[in-house]
Amino acid sequence: MVNSYKELKVFLKSLTERPKLLLHSCCAPCSTHVIMLLKKYFDITVFYSNDNIYPKEEFVKRLNEEIKFCQGQAINVLFTEYNEEDYLAAIKGYETLGEKSLRCYECYKFRLEKTVKKAKELGFDYFTTTLSISPHKNSEWINAIGRELENKFNINFLYSDFKKEEGYKNSVKLAKDYNLYRQDYCGCRYSLRERSLGHGKTEKDNS
Prior knowledge:
The structure is a single chain. The longest helix has 21 residues, at 102-122. The radius of gyration is 16 Å and the shape is globular. It starts with a helix and ends in an 11-residue tail after the last helix. The protein is an alpha/beta fold. It has one domain (5-9, 19-206): 3-Layer(aba) Sandwich (Rossmann fold). It is 48% helix and 10% strand. A five-stranded parallel beta sheet has the order 3-2-1-4-5, with helices on both faces. The chain has helices spanning 5-14, 28-38, 56-72, 84-90, 102-122, 139-153, 167-177, 189-196; strands spanning 20-24, 43-48, 76-79, 126-129, 156-157. Helix 2 runs parallel beside helix 3 (56-72) and helix 5 packs parallel to helix 6 (139-153).
């Protein structure tokens, strides 16, 4: 079992075949470095499932950027239709909590559950997410949720802490190189509100 980024790199180099990986992506900029890292080892399909994003126009804008980037990498993109009500139900009771709180934990879990179910349905060998590329996301939570879902659905979860070894900085550079839209808030209505009030840092603050 892979339990660190160092072990992940060793594991990747040990692969003798190209397993099928369903990669949940929150946005195109975050997916750049992860795709460049993993596409040498996996047959990747990107899964854009982000009902947390608000408003719908922002969801569509980020989806279109993801498709644009992935087309250039010859990678297929699957996506779910927008339904913010599902997200709001998933984080019910935690709405007033800030970034990096249990609100975010439930959001990670909500999106990873959708990912593992789709991976199981379509016969993928592995699933993972780009979420850990961000310095604002809790990688320990993400990996703990992934392991729990791995056991529940009997499908391999690929350990992720893609911010390691300047992964986040590289994703910022790649986003600029590919002229991708980079949002200035995480995505949900609560992070947008927090941004407007000047609370906390956002993805662009680390550029």
